Amino acid sequence: MKTFVRILKKPITSTLIAILFGFLVAAVVLVFAGYNPWESFGALFKGIFAKPKYISNVIIKATPIILTGLSVAFAFKTGLFNIGAEGQYIAGTIAAVCVGVKFNFAPVVQVPLVVLSGVLAGAVFGGIIGFLKARFGIHEVITSIMLNWIGLYLSNFIVNTATYHQPNSTSSYAVNESSFTMLLPDWKTSKAGMAALKPNKWLYEMMLKTDVNFGILIAVVMAIIIWVLLYRSSKGYELRAVGFNRDAAEFAGINVGRNITQAMLIAGALAGLAGALAITGTSPHKISQMAAFENNGFNGLSVALIAGSSPIGCIFAGLLFGGLLYGGQSVQQDVGAPTEIINIMIGTIVFFVALTKIVPSLADKLERRGAQRAK
Amino acid sequence: MLSKLILLIGITLMYSTPLVFGALGGVISERSGVVNIGIEGMMTTGAFTAAAVSYFTGNPWLGFLAAGAAGGATALLHAVASVTFKADQTISGIAINLIGPGFALFFCRLLFDNATMTLPAKTLPKLFGESAFGDSAMKNLNVDVTVILALATTVVMWFFLYRTKWGLHVRSVGEHPAAADTLGISVSGIRYVCVLISGILAGFGGASMTLAIISQFTPTAISGQGFIALAAVIFGKWTPFGAYGACLLFGFAQALTIVLGGGDFAVPSQILAMLPYILTIVVLILFVGRSVAPKADGEPYEKGVR
Amino acid sequence: MEVSRQYAVQMHGITKMFGSFCALNNVSLDVKKGTIHAILGENGAGKSTLMNVLYGLYQAEAGEIFLNGEKVNIKNPNVAIEHGIGMVHQHFMLVDNFTVTQNIILGNEIANRFGVLNMKKAREEILEIVKKYGLEVDPDAKIEDISVGMQQRVEILKALYRGVDLLILDEPTAVLTPQEIDDLIQIMHNLIADGKTIIIITHKLKEIKASSDVCTIIRRGEYIDTVNVADVDQEELATKMVGHAVQLVVEKTPAEPGEVVFEIDGLTVKDERKLDAVKNLSLKVRRGEIVGVAGIDGNGQKELVEAITNLTRAESGTIRINGAEIQNTSPRNVIDHKISTVHEDRQKRGLILPFTVAENMVIEKYRSQPYNKGGMLNRSEILAYTKGLIKDFDIRPDNCESQPVRGLSGGNQQKVILAREISNEPDLLIAVQPTRGLDVGAIEYVHKTLIRERDNGRAILLISLELDEVMNVADTIDVIYAGTIVDSFQQGEVDEKTIGLLMAGGKLNENIRQNS
């Protein structure tokens, strides 16, 4: 009993329970709509794991939302609600395209240039939100929402300018190839490359059928860096202090306004990085006219929540999310059930994450009842 | 020129209407102390239900009411999580924003032959159009009846909050739930009702989109209006008329892009579209100052915690 | 005690649990009609819990309640109110941005069929009660704008408006001056004369002796005794309350102050409403001296502290420590100049509750060596430092350095703050309401610590709303009224009544001064 209670109290248990409920509710809805839940879940898993290229695509799809998830999680830890990750992501894509189309240096210069420009753009968007809150006390939710829309329209505007508009399309030019961050794009399609890969079926499929890029490596590294920043550095200590109790932090001599701005700069930079890496790492390597938000930032919100705002947790939550989003397409293809079942599943998981506070307190009750019986 | 102006006013009123309903929903919920980020999700379920019911029954009013019920049902989830389970209200709201559209599209596919849009349905009647003004310039003020409903709801909510005893109860629960509790007011009861009403209103907001502005439900029918409504609540300082004014501002900007984007204006439509959002930030800096939400907004109420 | 109609309320065998914590264990209380009955106990003894059960906010696990000889089941405050029970809570249950009238009528409004409020009639009814009992209030003022004393009167009016017969007052004198306490006691007697019964919850022995007829003592959730107040003295009450003999007077040797370390000259500070809260205030503190600032809440103490710690602007005047001017710089600068502050609101300003004890301990030091190496925290150093302070200051539990500070009791949380501020080796230590919410043992500890630091040569500025504390602990007593220091005395020079008079804005008769 004691170990059971101890397991219940761990935060990861609550998350796993939430995921379980997500599947349960989805199963109920599927049955109600006349579909076989086992078949549907089977299709989902097949769609994620059956082929190497699927796994690769899941990782590729997970990369941006791990980073935007990190952005939101980091902001949460410092007491801020970064619902503006969407706009910061878009800002990253805009900057990456502008720089990546205009310049064409050697990859060793071009790639950092393009990626950093995206980081900077995201940081600016985030920094504006932070500054307005620090200086004028304006709620970050409202400025975030405003900047999201500004970002969207700015993107559409850039797409339509003469410099960037690709004729006969609804998109911009693609960035120059020197900006690409895919893994060995030229080598893998060359004769020598293909010959080398052919013996290993797994590798062959992954490399040639998907846009394998080192975005995922960057995402994982960033998660670790953010963890170290938050929990081992004095700056992280300051940011968390302000996040938990700005009155006490102020009283102890910490500059609250500066820390709020810095936190949002970092959060924005992470989301901007996500956007830049998406441009450099995956086709079509360009931005297009958007009628609505593509949800890279909003999905990051869900990732952060499922991860309990833990930086390392964002890696796993992002992968889970990416898997569900990508594998969900197979559900519609194979079983005919609408892909929206995935949205329902994800929404339910997040919903139960919200309720997870109950699990530890239920565990407490069990513990006490056990102790009383023992008396 | 006059007719263009009237057209502008008409479109402003139309586009702000869904926002007004959503924002009023936000106001009543947050005034009772429950943060409602899920307005977007509730509007989406309302939008879909309105279009679907109107299509299948041929009666747009039935669709309108059904939308309210759908929004209310969605809000019930949020109420249970936030009030009974004392969950994190922000997370619950975000979950609703995922679940709402999820269910809407899911059922849309089921009912409409796997399409993600409903078939065009009967819409709500319009007022002040050609029937009222014949061929004069005023005929451009061709607004839907939902515009009047939205304004009426705003007035009613204002009166409710500031002139009736239940409004006093609601506000006390949002500012100092312990005080209300010690005077015998049911904190959870009030919060449940307010969250439910907020869902119903959001549902109406969705319906004002698919039964008036457009005549069917599409995946992009509700894309961001819920969040703008949320911004309007904050901008309007959590008051009904403040929120109404903020929604008019956003609706006006949207109308501008439509009326001016017609071509004879040098500014690109995207820049025009950005203006309301930039304007909001500027106004916030200059005038609104520190946002002051109801004191107990977002905190689950626990007895005995001081 | 048998059930009978001569008792306004009888609570028999009340047991209340919160989870596995037993707040009340088989406690009984019998209150005779028309008396003022005190419930005495330390912070956390269970007195408020017992009354919350009576008022219907909590349901007891066991026990019965009788009103006027009849068994009742009080399920919620509405039922309590219907039975004529009213409660004035220790932490006021008032909505800050509602008016006095709105707060009084909340839940009991006069409205028509459609729920529309009739505010005019409400105002009239309230003014009638105001006149009857002499409770001065402004019906249209917002709670956030009125004084604490008036807020308390609003709370009492709330109960009277509902036709209360039994009035429960929870720690009513915590924020009142001697004069206001006298006024309150007079109001209580007016109510008794009108046939009402009063229960007063308190840990203030003096007030019990001054006001109550009977006193029931509760300790750690257990019933201890019920006595006639006239038959016992304060020492006996204290012993029953704590369980062992208690020193009621602080032991200290006379001060031997050195040179002036801290000096405020002509300080003016505006409050939130842009009015002058501190007006041309001057005071000085010397090395090895405790200066106590006595005053009623709302006379500028809050703004004074905020100006010194640089949380607020000083409009004019200077604040000097060791000769250096520190007004209008930054909180960081104040700390760097060796001023440490124990703030009155330990949970808001003093501690970050989710942080561990160790993390809280270094909140002013984390940027410097050896706790910080190249931007990274040196965790072993921080833990060692904290462990040392836990031992020196006897913080319990003694292995709490890695536990969240919110798990510590109020007394131990205060010890963490004291340890932290004192280990800064400040030249000036400011203590604001340092014993708020602490039990007798912890209060004793804090006072002893302050005096020890004084003996170590520190300058100490004590700002407290508890007049007793200031009079017992301080060497020099400055009286603050309307934002300025109106007079200054050495300890023992004048009596409490005189200081109370000055705190309320009265003027001293020169004779009193010369004759003490």
Keywords:
heterotrimer, A: mainly alpha, ABC transporter involved in vitamin B12 uptake, BtuC, 18 helices, globular, C: 516 residues, alpha/beta, Rossmann fold, six-stranded mixed sheet
Summarize this entry quickly.
The complex is a heterotrimer of chains A (375), B (306) and C (516). Chain A is mostly helical and 375 residues long.
What does this structure look like?
- The complex is a heterotrimer of chains A (375), B (306) and C (516).
- Chain A has helices spanning 2-9, 11-32, 37-49, 52-77, 85-102, 107-136, 140-160, 185-189, 191-197, 201-209, 215-232, 234-244, 246-251, 256-281, 296-306, 311-335, 340-355, 358-374.
- Chain A is mainly α.
- Chain A has a single domain (36-336), classed as ABC transporter involved in vitamin B12 uptake, BtuC (Orthogonal Bundle).
- Chain A starts with a helix and ends with a helix.
- The model of chain A has no long low-confidence stretch (mean pLDDT 85).
- Chain B has a single domain (2-288), classed as Orthogonal Bundle (ABC transporter involved in vitamin B12 uptake, BtuC), CATH 1.10.3470.
- In chain B, helix 1 packs antiparallel against helix 11 (240-260), helix 3 (60-84) runs antiparallel to helix 4 (89-111) and helix 11 runs antiparallel to helix 12.
- The longest helix of chain B has 30 residues, at 2-31.
- Chain B is globular.
- The longest helix of chain C is centred in the middle third of the chain and has 16 residues, at 178-193.
- Chain C has three domains: 7-242, 3-Layer(aba) Sandwich (Rossmann fold); 249-338 and 426-516, Rossmann fold (3-Layer(aba) Sandwich), CATH 3.40.50.300; 357-423, no CATH class.
- Chain C contains 18 helices and 22 strands.
- In chain C, the strands form five sheets. Chain C has a six-stranded mixed sheet with strand order 6-7-8-3-9-10, with helices on both faces. A six-stranded mixed sheet of chain C has the order 16-19-20-13-21-22. In chain C, strands 2-1-4-5 form a four-stranded antiparallel sheet, covered by helices on one side.
- Chain C has helices spanning 47-54, 77-82, 100-105, 119-133, 148-161, 178-193, 205-211, 234-242, 301-308, 331-336, 346-350, 357-361, 379-392, 410-422, 440-455, 467-473, 496-503, 510-515; strands spanning 7-18, 21-32, 36-40, 62-67, 70-72, 85-88, 166-170, 197-202, 214-219, 222-228, 260-270, 276-286, 289-294, 316-321, 324-325, 339-342, 372-373, 376-377, 428-432, 459-464, 476-481, 484-490.
- Chains A and C meet through helix 12, helix 13 and helix 18 of A and helix 10, helix 11 and strand 18 of C.
